[in-house]
Structures are given as C-alpha cells and as structure tokens.
Amino acid sequence: MTYLVADDLPSAPAGERFRALLARPGILQMPGAHNGQAGLQAKAAGFDALYLSGAAMTASMGIPDVGMITVDEVCFFIRQIARATALPLLADGDTGYGEALNVMHMVRSFEDAGAAAVHIEDQLLPKKCGHLNDKKLADPHDMAAKIAAARKARKHLYIVARTDAAASEGVDGSVGRAKLFLEAGADAIFPEALTNAEMFKEVARRLPGVPLLANMTEFGRTPFFTASEFEAMGYKMVIWPVSSLRIANKAQAELYAAIKRDGGTQNMVDRMQTRAELYATIGYHDYEALDQSIVTTIIPQAMPQPG
After folding, report:
1. In Å, how far are 26, 189, 223 from 214, measured between CA atoms?
2. Do 130 and 226 reside in the same domain of the chain?
3. Which DSSP helix (H) or strand (E) runs through 121?
4. 156-196, pLDDT tens digit by residue?
5. How far apart are CA 163 and CA 285, in angstroms?
6. 306: in domain
7. pLDDT in tens, 93-149
C-alpha cells in the first residue's frame, strides 16, 4: 500500500474505523508507534490500530514529557504514522494544550492530520507521566468543560477522557471524575496508573458498559498484565505506549558503543535490519513502480570484502 494512490486509501474516516474495531468482540490491542517505520512494523505484525504516546514523541525529540510540545509538532507524528500505515491511530492529547478553545483547535488539527482518536488528561501544567509522583489535578468541572469542547469540535474523532486521580483520590475519585467526563461527552475512559488487579476490576465494576482503556507501560505503577487479563477485568482497549521506543533506544545505545569501541559496525551487522528488509517494510519498490522513470534498484546481497 502507498498513500500516494487514492484507491489504496480507506474511504471511511479514521474515527469511524476506530469505532468499528471497538464494535468487534475482544480487546483492541494498540502498541505504541513512535514514527512511521515503527507503525509499519506493528502493522506487519498484525495489529489493527496504533497508539502515539506523548512520552515517546518527546523522548524521540530529546526532551521530557512535561507538556512542552505543541499541537503542530504532534500533528507531524500523527501525519507520518497515519500516512504510512492507514491504520486507526489513538493520539495522546496531553491536557488539550490549553482551555476549551485550545482543545477544539487540537481536535480539528488531529482530525486533519489523520488521527482516529485522542485522549485528554485531567492534569495541570507542567504535566507529568501518569506513573510519576505528585501530579497536579485539574478541577473536574474544568476538565469536563474540555471534554465538552472536544465533543463539540469533532467530526469523527473518538474521545477518551483520561483521569490521573487514582494516586491522590483513589478509585472513588477516578470513578467520580469518569462519570462527570462521560456526561460531558467522552466516548471512553482511561483510568491511569492503577496499581493492582483489584483496582482495575473495581473501576470496571463501577462503570458498567463504558469502554475502558488500560495502559501497560513498563517501569511504572501497573504490574504486568496481558491483553487477555485486561479483557477479563473488563477493559476494551490496551496500549503499550513506549515499548517500541525503549527497544529501539536500547539497540541504538549498543550500536554507538560498538562503533566507538570497535571503530566500525562490523560486529553489529547481524543485528541490523538489512537494506532488503527496510525496503520491504516501507514498500520501496511499490513507490518505484509508480514512476517508470525511476531505475529499478538492485539491492547488494552481501558486504564487499576489503582489498
């Protein structure tokens, strides 16, 4: 598939395709994709939808996830993943980048960039990762106003309201806020940083029939659960937000250490994606075939020997 060919592109809006996935039996699994290449690899592995994490975006830019990036910067990431994969994409909308009008601008911008869904959180700036300490919560009615603004602005975007209240207000606070956000127009609820199975089950029990999103991030407050375990606890969606970036970053660090140590990449070649594998992933020859003036590329099959 190439996004240059209209017949290859989905005809239904991304938000509608996201809703169709949620209408199927089972839990919707959305791995994080921090760029278009990661999105294509996730698609090749068989996933039907993707997640774009604010933490992964900012980390890939070399800055922390404290609410520094702009709507336009996020749209750059949305656009490349949506174009590359044509899969429905849930995007991290942080706190909405401001108040009601800013939230409406974000919704319109995200839709235009190709997003299928967005989640907005009830933190105050400077915001933090949901699994860190001492988060500052917004007044729940102020957050509800943002959700109502998002609902008013959207054409098809699926709206997920995230609450970070569990750490300071417990399940009661999370559920109370969730009900207010649902009344304001949220389509689903994301109770962030729950710390055990009992909390996950209790939130689901007290929000019957509400689509719930679980966050299975590593090195956070939530123990490891599988997708099927989250489904059994009453959840309809699960994300692995930063996993692809963590793996890629670890591999890059080892590569740079090897180059510095060995004076070259000769000891790392067997761990690399080959040129042929890269071209297959990005559909290089499909693009090439669109323009017969491009000479067919011959891929070297082996490293040349010195001498």
Report:
1. 14, 9, 12
2. yes
3. strand 117-121
4. 999 999 999 998 899 999 999 999 999 999 999 999 989 99
5. 45
6. no
7. 999 999 999 999 999 999 999 999 999 999 886 665 656 566 689 999 999 999 999
Least confident of 7-21, 113-127, 286-300: 286-300
CB 52 within 8 A of CB 93: no
**Structure token pair of residue 136:** 């500052």
What is the distance between the alpha carbons of residues 213 and 142, in angstroms, rounded to a whole number? 22
216 contacts: CB under 8 Å, gap ≥ 6: 222, 224, 225, 230, 238, 239, 240
Containing domain of residue 262, as a range? 249-290
Contacts of 81 by beta carbon, 8 Å cutoff, 6+ apart: 33, 35, 36, 38, 39, 50, 52, 87, 89, 114
Residues 162 and 192: beta-carbon distance below 8 Å? yes
Q: Which residues are catalytic?
A: 51, 65, 92, 94, 119, 121, 129, 162, 192, 215
Q: Can you tell me the distance from the alpha carbon of 24 to that of 13, in angstroms, rounded to the nearest whole number? A: 18
Residue 238's Cα: distance from chain center in Å?
10
- Residue 300 within a domain: no
pTM: 0.92
State the amino acid at position 166 in one-letter form: A
* Dihedrals phi, psi of 115, to nearest 5 degrees: -70, 150
Token digits for 36? Answer: 């278009």
DSSP string, 94-107: TT-SSSHHHHHHHH
Looking at the structure, tell me whether residues 187 and 267 fall in a common domain. Answer: no
Q: Are 118 and 90 in contact (CB under 8 A)?
A: yes
What are the φ and ψ backbone dihedral angles of 118, each rounded to 5 degrees? -140, 145
Q: Looking at the structure, tell me whether residues 189 and 224 fall in a common domain.
A: yes
User: What is the C-alpha separation between 297 and 300, in angstroms, rounded?
Assistant: 9
* Distance in angstroms (rounded) separating the CA atoms of residues 18 and 88: 6
